[in-house]
């Protein structure tokens, strides 16, 4: 029985602690959301002063990203304060020059974080200083602020909504004018590109005609080279034929000489044989007479 009482007491204490932690987290979330709304009103006013369509588009994307980031309220408010500071200066720098990623927010660089969290916030607006002072209040004061903020939200929700809608309409109107101006500039650029394209097409046509003339001249030169080559080959063949004729003539002359010498030698052999035959016959006659 004592153990059960102890367990029940422990469970009650744990539930009480969890409820207090949950209540404190809710109060902190309400305070951060309230500050986010106040800062968002100023940021929308600053966006109206922008002249660049790209910067307006980037701001809208970043606001949508921050508005949907509920699980990182502290970091979300730091991002919004940094965006407000840059817009008040009239330009976007660093991380806000590109579209946000779909992942969670990463901590700001040290330079941006120092500006957002330093104690020298006298250069910021009054609502920024009030937000920094709120962080040092006690839990009782937080409860009082919670009740007071709820009452103020219930009484002024319509007026804040109307003001936000008015700012949105002004931003949309300014964005529309910038889009029209951008369309006119793109139309003029497109027309200049069309004229340039026509000029390049004419130049290309002229160069193609010039290339056709060059091709015709090259064809004529190749034909001329072929003719000269054929003529040179014919002349070379003629010279070879002449040389062959001269060689044949020399061979015929040599053949005649050899034939003449052979006939002389043959006649000499015939005479010697006749003399030998006569001598032999004479010797035989004398031999038989004896």
Secondary structure: elements and pairs:
Elements: H1 2-47, H2 53-68, H3 73-89, H4 110-117, H5 126-134, H6 139-289
Description:
The chain is mainly α and 290 residues long. Helix content is 85%, strand content 0%. The chain is built from 6 helices and no strands. The longest helix is centred in the last third of the chain and has 151 residues, at 139-289. 8% of the residues are buried. Residues 32-110 form the DUF4485 domain. Pfam families: DUF4485. InterPro entries: DUF4485.
Strand content: under 5%
- Output the number of helix runs: 6
Structural class label: mainly alpha
User: How far from one another are the termini?
Assistant: 192 Å
Main sheet? none
Q: H/E order of the elements?
A: HHHHHH
* Helical percentage: over 70%
Low-confidence stretches: 117-139, 148-164
Indicate the mean pLDDT.
75
Shape: rod-shaped
Radius of gyration: 58 Å
What's the total count of β strands? 0
Compact summary:
The protein is mostly helical and 290 residues long. The protein has helices spanning 2-47, 53-68, 73-89, 110-117, 126-134, 139-289.
